[in-house]
Amino acid sequence: MNKPRITIIDYGMGNTWSVISAINYLGYECELTKEKSKIINSDLLILPGVGSYSRAIKKLKLTNIFNFIKEAVLEKEKKILGICLGFQLLGISSEEDGSNNGLNIIPSKVKKFSFQPNNNYKIPHVGFNSVKFNPKDALFSKINQNSDFYFVHSFRFENNNLEGLKSTTFHGEEFLAAYHHKNIFGTQFHPEKSQSNGLTLIKNFINI
């Protein structure tokens, strides 16, 4: 069986080297690109992200990658994994830096944490935290329930009545840590920085 064509979407704001290194370590090849033909014709897409939501959206629209992603995921039903900011970009909108519309692939909004920071829970949320997932979610196959993954963020998806398989984490409040519905996947945590658990999750995504 041929190995899948894995594309890392390059819009200048992703932790791309760590993601590429993780995929290569697992024995797969991938390509970092912003070209429409490669994005559209890829088997698997990964949208990483670090930094400002509004700046990321501007970059995606300036290069027209915004429309390439929507065509690939919504029309051609390519599998996509959004990581951290890349996960949030798949949503309806975000409160970060004002109100900015996202790709509207995941029907939920990104908002600030609603709790007041204290000695136990600070914002941004940084470090390893346990994730509670749906046992039916193949994204977490061969991973123990409540395993730790690495987070670094100040905004999160609302944990609302989304259709699909949802995973959650508690940091001052419960929020959406990962999501899987049909060909759409996302993690608020960084699997590429989450050691063996993260590598297993990336491998699961590739093989689902």
Give an account of the 3D structure.
It is a single chain. This protein has 208 residues and is of the alpha/beta class. The chain is built from six helices and 13 strands. Helices cover 26% and strands 28% of the residues. A seven-stranded mixed sheet has the order 2-1-3-4-13-12-11. The longest helix is centred in the last third of the chain and has 13 residues. The two termini are 14 Å apart. The model has no long low-confidence stretch (mean pLDDT 95).
The string of secondary-structure elements, in order, is EHEHEHHEHEEEEEEEEEH
What's the number of helices? Answer: 6
Structural class: alpha/beta
Sheet bearing the most strands, described? 7 strands, mixed
The helix content is 25-40%
Strands ordered across the widest β-sheet: 2-1-3-4-13-12-11
Count the beta strands.
Answer: 13
> What proportion strand?
25-35%
Distance, first to last CA: 14 Å
**What is the typical, i.e. mean, pLDDT?**
95
Gyration radius (Cα, Å) is 16 Å
Question: Uncertain spans, ≥5 residues at pLDDT below 50?
Answer: none
Apparent shape: globular
List keywords for this structure.
single chain; 208 residues; alpha/beta; 7-stranded mixed sheet; 26% helix; globular
